[in-house]
Specification:
By secondary structure, the protein is mainly β. It has helices at about 5-20, 125, 165-170; strands at about 50, 55-60, 65-75, 75-85, 95-100, 110, 130-140, 145-150, 155-165, 180, 195, 200. It has one domain: Glycosyl hydrolase domain, family 43 (Tachylectin-2, Chain A, 5 Propeller). The chain is about 10% helix and about 35% strand. The longest helix has 13 residues, at about 5-20. Bound molecules: 2-acetamido-2-deoxy-beta-D-glucopyranose (5 copies).
């Protein structure tokens, strides 16, 4: 069954954080659960993407959407999420999509992935499992960095850093540099950050 990205999933994590809210100065929150739209995103078959590796147009988010990261920029929530198609050896290659919202509930999705396996030097790490599990932090100079997991079908690798022009230009186009951070590291969430004025900042 296709996974669905639910508000509950996000809020579970936030609720765990909130358990001891106020006791640790690194914690953000408190958060209030809003069930008005739940789930607020699911897989869809009507968005197509011309995959430069497969050289076919595919329904890139038909199977599932999950494991996102969110930033808030000028009062707009930008949610970077992992999406899978039904293609290939694993019946699922991952790419990263972008959904935008002004209220955190009603999201407008960009119809193409904004980060994906391409015919570049990282393809040996990314094919054909794909690009998974984005995490984003800001540094003190206002530059956003993204880590993600590259999966070649047998080994998951942490990739870093990605300078995300999409966030700086305000446009929905992106230019990325990909870099291998380490072999055989565990996957998502490995973007160590510190709390600075209610923002998670890169060290
Ligand atoms: C997309 O298409 C596949 C294959 O026809 C189908 O199994 C799946 O349920 C569809 N998913 C959605 C979200 O419509
Ligand atoms: C959600 O946002 C879109 C785009 O801004 C808008 O067209 C639509 O009416 C909104 N839907 C709801 C339920 O607020
Ligand atoms: C992929 O990139 C390599 C190296 O740049 C190039 O030699 C090759 O022709 C490209 N393949 C395709 C299918 O574009
Ligand atoms: C911020 O920019 C300055 C000047 O380019 C640089 O020396 C410094 O390392 C940067 N700090 C971070 C955290 O990237
Ligand atoms: C994935 O990468 C590892 C390490 O380089 C390699 O041993 C393995 O054969 C690769 N797997 C695939 C399916 O390409």
């Amino acid at each position: 069954m296709a996974l669905q990205l639910t508000i509950s999933y996000l809020l579970l994590i936030l609720a765990i954080l909130e358990l001891s809210n106020g006791q640790n100065d690194w914690q953000i929150g408190p958060f209030i659960k809003d069930d008005a739209v739940n789930p607020f995103m699911g897989p869809r078959n009507d968005t197509r993407f011309a995959c430069p590796v497969r050289k076919e147009t595919i329904a890139w988010e038909a199977k599932d959407v999950f494991n996102p990261t969110a930033i808030v920029q000028n009062n707009v929530v930008k949610l970077f999420y992992r999406a899978e198609d039904y293609e290939g050896a694993y019946k699922g290659t991952s790419r990263i999509g972008l959904a935008i919202s002004s209220d955190g509930l009603n999201f407008t999705r960009i119809t193409s992935p904004i980060f994906f396996p391409d015919n570049d030097t990282s393809l040996i790490y990314e094919w054909e499992g794909g690009c998974e599990d984005p995490r984003i932090t800001l540094n003190e100079n206002g530059t956003y960095f993204m880590t993600y997991t590259a999966y070649n079908g047998s080994l998951a690798r942490l990739m870093h850093p990605q300078i995300i022009q999409i966030l700086h230009s305000g446009q929905n186009t992106a230019q990325f540099s990909k870099m291998l951070m380490g072999e055989d590291l565990l996957t998502s969430g490995q973007n160590l950050a510190r709390l600075c004025q209610q923002l998670l900042m890169s060290p």
